[in-house]
Write a structure and sequence with these properties.
Chain lengths: 588, 612
């Protein structure tokens, strides 16, 4: 039984569990204290000073003050509102007045707070840019850091250091010169940044945003000679609706296909198909390693590009453990420019593949190594985040909500439930095990066993289980959020140093909290509640799929029959697999 | 952690008892040694005198004592701060049977003369003979009867100027570590009770009752078997150097205070956080810790008791904000020194997440004398709520600037006019600034104000760590406010918006007024920002940063007003001139417009062109 305490907020008594913040306690009685630097995912930094309230007569921050027995809280009186307004006006005075042309226009928390507070004039002289401002950093071509727009709420640093454990971003200098940058003011591209984009997903202003490729895509669509093909990632179908007023987790796959066709794409594919291919390849790879003892164990999944970057930078000695299989969208890209091009008789040079991803790191992945040009061309031409495509649909004036649902194009559009669960933590492992079970035992998994509960869910950062596979015990681990992954890697390394048997055989890793549903390119404002809703959406998509195992997908069978031959075959090896190399943490 | 067996513990206790005896013996030996000397020359070698050349003065003293064959009779002591820093280097000659004699502005030459014309004859002639000094030597005398000296009451500074800070034997001979020994024979609660009765409050600025802080730490359970004491030696106010001098004058007293606190609260180890710009203080803390470890003062089963304690030294890198306790803890942990919200208070969750009490240097130095002489002895000094004494660094435009310790409740009048000897310029006194960049000004009209926590707060200032800067009528209060605000703006850690941006914006407005460009609305904005900073800044530094400005506006509003009026006049004049200028331009334009009529063809033209 949790210990409960009673306090008074605005003369109203409220009972809350011990440890609840005053901010959350107020929410329980429908008092919405304004905040700016606070984010429910993160430890409160207490930087902005907007959420101040009077506690027993003293002005304190409600976000980080734990409720105590008998506390008397006043959340609104003229003093408090005046102080909040002044703080907000001060914050605005160190922020450029560029809302109209800002990428975060309409989605900026500072902008909406200024709107709520009815700030009608610049009370203080605007001091941006100050002479010591750092230039805009778009070096990664995934994430853009504009220090002028930064209000130093500290969310990005908190997420980068303590959730992701990457420490690419840090707070440098002091006084009015304080700014956010990689150590030594190096560029993001030269820093340990893994481009996961969690900073952009948490930034309240336009200081950290995704690198906008939408104009490039518009001009590709304009070019008459181009044959533009699009694919959507698993996690996109349950989040995109949010931009059009749907509840988080609503599956809008059919409407997304329709909207993309209206935008002018000649073929609409689904990355879930690629996910099914990944399972065929990766599953077979695991069987090779585990059953036939051919290769290093544990095997670690590699479909998350931020995780690949992390591993190449922080754990290069783990490279042999990585599955060599490419990520699903890269597979769809390579197959589109070979298999599909052949099929429809179009010159692959004219085909442009655009992938819609919940991720900023995918923008980096499509150029990361020579294997990304396996088709003889750049396999995926542009990778757009969910946020970019939502803006593009709005620009095109497409009435998303009232669109008739459509189907994806064949054959790279058909997918199974195993492909769709790739979008959340544990999903890749679940999909792989469904097929591995079949490959090892020759039997299909029983329908009631298809959901592998111990490895699902967003609450635990590291999930472990053992599974019996034809009399052999498989030790499995699933981790999400690179901060958690780090612990798993250390665990592995310790075992290695001691000469012990590795603690796991098969490890799934996703760099973002919750997996791709909480990806760095997803619609803003994500919380654990939203992650759970999106995950539930994908789970129901899986449940209602005709086929729930990748190897059952008729298009996959056709692909191997007509084109690839067999998993891990020569053609697969050339088109669908990649290699890794160590990368220094800091480049000059 | 390795569990010790009963047998091992008994052995450690045995060792501890021997170490205690040895330590006390060391004190006795020192007393015996000193008796051999007929005289002593005490030379101040604290930072101020040192930078004035004290080292060569000491060499000169030693050399001439040697040449005159007096080395065996005269004890040379390099001491901590003697107080009257403005007239350093200082040296005091004490000859048995005679009144002590203090010399100011001592140079190596003067040192040699002192030995040959003062020390040598006095020793030769004996105490009965009156001492005849040359006029030159007399001109260098600093009377010990000056109000500067007799109006002070020294508890914390008692040893400074009278003993060798590096001599552990001398520390013990003057009662050192006997307070700790006394405590170890009491229960921790009894020790707490003594501190509570004494009424000791934190000397770092805010005046939080020390006993209350210690009780909070005592009540907090050990975390992983640990609880910490931290000594805050990160004093960084412009013009303040009390803690530097206290540590430089002997860190054993502070260490002893910390250990008593640790015993009372159950803390297991301690940390000295001293800013790296204080080399002398660092040297003395290092030495004290080394000596304490060597002689069993720090370690296991101290003096044969059940109390074990260890202490370490860490350098602060000079950020002003690291004097704020939560930022200090971050810095101690090796992180960027920025404050974090309280609660949880450090006594609940402090260094490395473990309960920690952070005490100022001066607070800790007060503890051993309280234990030795009793809480009543201490609480007799001071006012109803502010007990004991306070050390101040009296600087600015005052005749006798230096380090002083006075009873709480001493009036501003006494500080400035008696101890300080009035303004150095002889011009009327205008105000005194206390509390450093977090404090405010006390105007001449409040000369009768007794200096204590409450009174200072009433005036919108604060005790701070004890900087006190005297200003005369020539000083512009707007400039003073600008100076302090500039300092805090520079030193803002940059974490919270109210301090980072508020301070900067306020500074721009103060500068505007100081530069004669300000308006009434700027003054209003300053007050708006000031209020928001007080309410919404995260830490004490940000919350008090507007104080120098708000306090000067409160007491010297007319100075701001005058500047603003002048600015308005200037503006009006400028507008007038501009109007005149534009009317002239208008006239000129009219003239220009008439030009076509009056312009003649170029001189060379005589209609030739038409002919061709």
């Amino acid at each position: 039984m949790e210990e409960m305490i009673t306090l008074t907020i605005d003369s109203k008594e409220v009972k809350v569990p011990k440890g609840t913040s005053v901010l959350d306690a107020a929410k329980m009685i429908q008092v919405d204290i304004p905040t700016l630097c606070y984010h429910p995912d993160l430890h409160p930094s207490a930087a902005c000073g907007i959420c101040i309230v009077k506690i027993n007569g003293r002005m304190l921050r409600s976000c980080c003050t734990p409720a105590e027995e008998g506390m008397e809280v006043i959340t609104r009186d003229p003093d408090i509102i005046e102080a909040r307004r002044t703080v907000l006006k001060l914050t605005l005075s160190k922020h450029p007045n560029e809302c109209l042309t800002c990428q975060k226009n309409e989605m900026c928390e500072l902008q909406s707070l200024a709107g709520k507070f009815g700030i009608r004039a610049n009370a203080f002289d605007n001091i941006t840019p100050t002479p010591f401002e750092m230039p805009k950093d778009a070096s990664t071509k995934c994430i853009v850091l504009d220090p002028r727009k930064c209000i130093l709420c500290g969310r990005c640093v908190e997420v980068c250091q303590h959730i992701q454990n990457v420490w690419a971003l840090s707070i440098l200098d002091r006084s009015v010169k304080t700014h956010i940058a990689p150590a030594g003011d190096s560029r993001l591209a030269d820093s340990p940044c893994i481009k996961c984009g969690q900073c952009t997903a948490h930034c309240p202003t336009g200081a950290l945003v995704e690198y906008d490729d939408s104009e490039r895509v518009w001009s590709m669509l304009q070019e008459k000679d181009n044959y533009c093909v699009v694919q959507i990632a698993p996690a996109v179908r349950v989040s995109m609706g949010e931009a059009f007023g749907y509840a988080p987790g609503t599956v809008t796959t059919g409407k997304i296909y329709a909207a993309l066709r209206k935008m002018g794409f000649k073929a609409v594919f689904d990355t879930n198909f690629g996910a099914d291919v990944t399972i065929m390849e990766e599953g077979s790879e695991f069987v090779e390693r585990f059953v036939k003892g051919d290769g290093v164990l544990p095997m670690i999944t590699s479909c998350c590009p931020a995780w690949v970057d992390f591993m190449e930078k922080f754990y290069p000695d783990m490279i042999p453990h990585f599955s060599t299989c490419k990520s699903p969208h890269a597979i769809v890209g390579a197959l589109t420019k070979t298999y599909y091009a052949e099929k429809i008789g179009v010159d692959p040079a004219k085909i442009k593949v655009i992938s819609i991803m919940p991720c900023t790191a995918k923008k980096f992945e499509i150029l990361r190594s020579k294997e990304m040009f396996a088709s003889g061309f750049q396999d995926v031409d542009v990778s757009l985040t969910t946020r970019e495509i939502c803006r593009m649909i709005k620009q095109a004036g497409i009435d998303f909500v009232n669109l008739q649902e459509e189907r994806a194009d064949s054959p790279l559009g058909e997918y199974t439930g195993a492909g769709t669960v790739f979008g959340f933590t544990g999903g890749v492992m679940e999909a792989a095990l469904r097929t591995v079970h079949y490959l090892v035992t020759g039997e299909e998994m029983k329908p009631e066993n298809l959901e592998i509960k111990p490895i699902l869910g967003v609450d635990k950062g590291i999930k472990e289980m053992t599974m019996n596979l034809a009399g052999k015990e498989v030790r499995i681990c699933v981790a999400h959020g690179t901060g958690n992954v780090e612990k798993v890697m250390q665990h592995l390394q310790e075992a290695k140093e001691k000469g012990e048997e590795p603690p796991y055989h098969f490890i799934e890793v996703m760099a973002c909290d919750g997996g791709c549903i909480g990806g760095g390119g997803q619609p803003l404002g994500v919380t654990d509640e939203i992650r759970k809703a999106r995950m539930a959406g994908l789970m129901s998509d899986d449940e209602f799929s005709e086929f729930r195992c990748s190897h059952q997908n008729p298009s996959i069978k056709q692909l191997y029959d007509e084109f690839l031959g067999k998993p891990l075959g020569e053609k697969s090896h050339h088109l669908l697999h990649t290699s890794y190399q160590p990368i220094p943490l800091y480049k000059r | 952690m390795v569990e010790l067996t009963q047998e091992q513990i008994q052995k450690l206790k045995e060792l501890g008892r021997t170490q205690k005896e040895n330590l006390l013996k060391m004190g006795e030996t020192f007393k015996e040694d000193v008796k051999k000397y007929k005289a002593a020359i005490y030379t101040c070698n604290a930072t101020s005198c040192h930078s004035g050349g004290a080292a060569s003065v000491i060499d000169a003293f030693k050399e001439s004592l040697e040449t005159m064959g007096l080395s065996q009779d005269v004890r040379m002591v390099c001491t901590g701060c003697m107080g009257l820093c403005a007239t350093g280097p200082l040296a005091r000659v004490e000859i048995k049977g005679r009144e002590p004699f203090l010399y100011k502005e001592v140079t190596p030459d003067l040192a040699r003369i002192i030995v040959s014309e003062h020390v040598a004859p006095a020793l030769r002639d004996g105490a009965e003979q009156p001492l005849r000094l040359s006029n030159y030597l007399k001109s260098k005398e600093l009377s010990l009867q000056l109000p500067f000296f007799i109006k002070q009451r020294k508890i914390v500074l008692a040893r400074l100027g009278h003993s060798d800070p590096e001599n552990l034997g001398e520390y013990v001979a003057t009662g050192g570590y006997q307070a700790l020994m006394k405590c170890l024979e009491m229960k921790p609660e009894e020790v707490l009770e003594i501190i509570r009765k004494s009424g000791l409050r934190g000397r770092g600025g805010a005046g939080f009752p020390t006993a209350k802080k210690w009780e909070m730490l005592a009540q907090a359970p050990l975390c992983d078997g640990e609880k910490f004491m931290v000594c805050n030696g990160d004093e960084g106010d412009p013009g303040a150097y009390m803690d530097s001098c206290i540590l430089g004058g002997g860190a054993h007293a502070v260490l002893e205070g910390m250990m008593i606190g640790a015993y009372a609260t159950g803390a297991t180890s301690g940390w000295f956080y001293v800013r790296a710009e204080y080399p002398l203080a660092i040297e003395r803390v290092e030495l004290a810790l080394k000596q304490a470890k060597k002689y069993g003062i720090l370690g296991k089963n101290i003096f044969g008791s059940d109390f074990s304690f260890m202490a370490e030294l860490r350098y602060g890198a000079g950020a002003f904000v690291c004097g704020e306790e939560t930022a200090l803890l971050e810095s101690l942990e090796g992180k960027r020194g920025t404050p974090h919200p309280r609660p949880p208070y450090p006594t609940q969750k402090g260094l490395f997440g473990k309960p920690t009490a952070i005490n100022n240097v001066e607070t800790l130095a007060n503890v051993p004398p309280i234990i030795l002489k009793g809480p009543e002895w201490f609480s007799e000094v001071g006012t109803a709520t502010s007990k004991g004494t306070k050390v101040f660094a009296l600087t600015g435009k005052v005749k006798h600037s230096g380090l002083v310790e006075v009873p709480m409740g001493t009036t501003v009048e006494c500080m400035v006019n008696e101890i300080g000897g009035g303004t150095s310029s002889g011009k009327p006194f205008k105000a005194v600034q206390t509390g450093g960049p977090s404090g405010g000004v006390i105007p001449a009209s409040h000369l009768d104000m007794p200096i204590c926590y409450e009174e200072l707060k009433k005036l919108g200032s604060m005790m701070g760590s004890g900087g006190m800067i005297v200003m005369d009528q020539d000083d512009s209060m707007v400039e003073i406010a600008k100076f302090y605000l500039n300092f805090t703006v520079d030193e803002s850690c940059g974490k919270c918006a109210p301090c980072r941006i508020g301070g900067y914006q306020m500074l721009q407005l103060v500068k505007k007024i100081a530069d004669g460009e300000g308006t009434q609305s700027d003054l209003k904005k300053i007050q708006e920002i000031g209020t928001a900073m007080k309410q919404a800044a995260l830490c004490g530094l940000g919350q008090t940063a507007p104080n120098p400005v708000l306090s000067t506006i409160r007491f010297f509003y007319d100075e701001y007003e005058t500047l603003i009026q002048q600015a308005q006049q200037k503006k009006a004049e400028k507008q007038k001139l501009q109007a005149e200028l534009s009317s002239i331009e208008h006239e000129m334009k009219k003239l220009d417009e008439r030009k076509p009529d009056s312009t003649l063809p170029a001189a060379g033209c005589s209609g030739q062109c038409k002919k061709e």
